[in-house]
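hey can u check if this looks right to u? its 372 residues, i copy pasted from the old doc so theres a chance i mangled smth
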Amino acid sequence: MSIDFELVKIFLFSILFLIPVMIVASIISHYLNKKKHVTINEKRINNQHVIETIIDNFRNACVILTKDGRIVSYNKAFYDLVGPSHINSFVKDSSYITNFINGGHQNRLIESLINDHYYYIELTKLITEGLDLVFMNFVDVTLIKNAYLKQDSFIKDLKHELKTPLSGIIGLSNLLTTIPIDDEKEFNKICMTIHEEALRVNDIINELTNSFDSNVGTDIIDIDNLFDELSLIYQNNEHPNVRLYFRNYVEINLVSDFQIIKQIIINIINNAFQYTVAGYINVKAVQEDNSIVFSISDTGIGMDTAEIDLIFERFYRIDKSRDRHTGGYGLGLSIVKKLVDKLGATINVMSKVNVGTTFIIKFALDKEIEDH
C-alpha cells in the first residue's frame, strides 16, 4: 500500500501545528484580557511568565521571537535540539525566519534538517493586544521522511535492477524481427536467452517483494556455456569506453543453480559498469584447491574500507560525492549477498579508491562435485 505523503503532511500540519498554535494564542489572549487592570509593567511580567509556562509544557521544541527576531523564550526541548552555543545565533543563521517576519503571511511551514533529524517547523505570527510575536513549533518527522526516502529509493533501485534484463529482452527480440537468422541452432539459442531473461525479471520481482522462495537447483554447469550466455546479454554494450572480458580457466563442471549464479554475476557487472568511466571489467573463473572461484574486477572509482563493510546492506549507496548516477552499490548487492548465502558460497570484496574493485565468490567443491 503506497503512502500519500501530501495527505500525511496536511494531516501533520492540522494536528501537530494548528491546534497547539490556536491553544497558545487563545491562552495568551485570555490572560491578556483578564489582566487589563494591571499596570503596563506588571502586564509585561505576567505575560512573559504565562508564555514561558505554556511553552515549557510543550513536548515539541518551540521558541517565541519578537517581530525583530529576538528570542523571548524557549523550552528545554528547543535548548536540547539547538544546543546552548547556537541558541543566540539560531535566528541569524536561519534566513527563512527573517523572510517570514518581514513577509505578509500569518503561517508558514518549513522542512529543515537539524542534527540528522527532519523537522517540520511551523511559524505563526501572534498578534494580539500588547503582543507582536512569532511562535515556532518543531515536530520531528524523521520516521515519516525516512519511509518516504526508502520508498523513493526502492523505486529507483527496482528500475535499476530491471533495466539490464529488459534491455536484453528488447534487444534480442528486436534482433529476431529485423535480421534474418538462417541458423536454427542460433535462432533457438536467442529465443532461449530471451525466455531466461524474462524468468530473471520474474525472479527479481519476487526477490524485491520478499517472496524469492524457490529451491536451489542442482544444475551441472559448464562455465564456458555460462560465460557465452552472459556475453550474449552484453553484446550491445551501452558503455563504449569500458571493455567486458570473460575468461574461464576451470576444466570441471560446477554443480549449483545456473540461473542464480547468472543473476549474481549480472548484478555485480551492472554495478561495475555504473562506477567505471573507462577501462575494463574482467569476469574470471579459476579452480583453487577444492574451490571454484569467480572474480569480477573493474577499474572503477573503488571504495574505502568503511564502505566495503556496508555495501551489502539494503538501500545502501556509496559516497554520493562520487556517485555518477542514481542507484549504486545498494539493492543489487543486497540481493547478491542473499543469493550467495542461498547457494552456500562466500563473497568477499577488495577495493581501492580510484583504482577499482574486485568481488570474489568462492564455491567449495567436494569429491562428488569434482568427479562430474
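Residues 35-45, 319-330, 367-372 have pLDDT under 50 and may be disordered.
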